[in-house]
Amino acid sequence: MSSWRDQILKEFTPKVSRLTLVADPDSLLLEEKILEGIREQGFELIPFEDHVAFRYAYELKFRSRWDRGEETDLVVVLRSQASDLACLPYDLLQAGRKLSFNLGDIFPHLSYPVVAALDRGDLDVLYEAQKRHAPGQMGDNATKEFVLRHVFEIAPELIKQPTGLLRVLLRRHYRGLRIPAILDERFIQILRQDNTFEDWPIETLISDREAFFTFLQERWPIFLNSKVTKEETGTREDQKPYGLTIKGPVDLPFDHHDIRVYMDNLFLEGLLHSVSHEHADFLTKTWVRIGVRTEPSKDRSRRLNMLIKNLQASIPAEDARHGDWFHFARGWAELAVQVYRQVIAPEDMATQSLKSLQTQVDVAFASWLARRYAGLVNLPPVPPVMLHHIP
Q1: Which of 161, 191, 377, 388 has the most Cβ atoms closer than 10 angstroms to its Cβ?
Q2: How far is residue 315 from each of residues 46, 211, 310, measured CA to CA in Å?
């Protein structure tokens, strides 16, 4: 099978049974593409959560139609922790076809608690890794390391330098990756096996996104100072920490190619903020110019144009997951802030680019909504996707 979804979707053939009962303890049927695939086959889904609400919807929307001789395929989804359908009403059990899906059947060689902790959007990569590497039976720690390596591209045992750790942290926090706590614990455990990162507040930097960007922000002026000093003297002097709220190393390798590739976007999207510097004339002629404050109007104009260019290249595709739009929305919000902070003349090139970008985003988002919106209401409330998911 090319996808883990095929194992589920092959069971949903129209006109086989008008009522299908599914035990779904891992909420697999709520995954966006599963929902889309089931609906494309003509099935309608209804969760069995509240007995009264279910009975009302079932009798009104489906039972009455069947009594009139109308054909419709209904899937009743039970999302209890057990794969037992016995708690469903007797009349459903007598009339319905019974199915059960769980992660243990799809990933038989991996530790179930570890796989169950993953976001359902990560299962595609894990399934491909399972097929490609054909691992034997794995325990908890082996599964954690397998998932870290193949799903999140983190090989803790190979991280021996600050650049390696920073690259992993930047990728995680910039993309907003949701990595389960049990994987973070294993990651930290391996990093702490030697003294390489003894002075790093690893636990804080891994778990706290805001603290990580504060950690970078506080060290950016120090890096600029060292860059100027190196240019003037040919050597980089040790920097003394001053007023750092996040403890740890002072000198970070922002100029390493693995780190530098993120820097423009961090400043463009407001995750880091440019700073004033007495040697701004020199610094703005180098790659660090995006993080150096000069004339406010020029800074805003440069940032606006770069934001537009970046967003045009990153509009999510029609088959994107909702998380891709959440990530895009962060940059879009930053663009809105920049637009309303300055007056742009109608004849300005930025105005034309903005109009073009707005049209592209509207078309792409409308197309995505038409295809995916119906399934969003059924997604798990953690993390919240729609307003009613927020308590």
Answers
A1: 191
A2: 32, 28, 9
Residue 164: inside a domain: no
Residue 18, pLDDT above cutoff 90: no
**For residue 143, what are its two tokens?**
């599964």
Total Cβ atoms within 10 A of residue 146: 20
Tell me how far CA of residue 376 lies from CA of 66, 136, 193, 372, 388, in angstroms. 27, 36, 42, 7, 11
pLDDT digit string, tens, across residues 315-349: 998 888 888 898 899 889 988 888 877 766 555 66
**Domain membership flag for residue 58:** yes
Cβ-based neighbour number of residue 2 at 10 Å: 8
CATH number at residue 91: 3.40.50
345 Cα distance to chain centroid: 37
Structure tokens at 309: 């260019």
In angstroms, the CA 43 to CA 58 distance is: 14
Range of the domain at 43: 6-106
Question: Computed over its alpha carbons, how large is the radius of gyration of the chain?
Answer: 26
For residue 204, the SS3 value is: helix
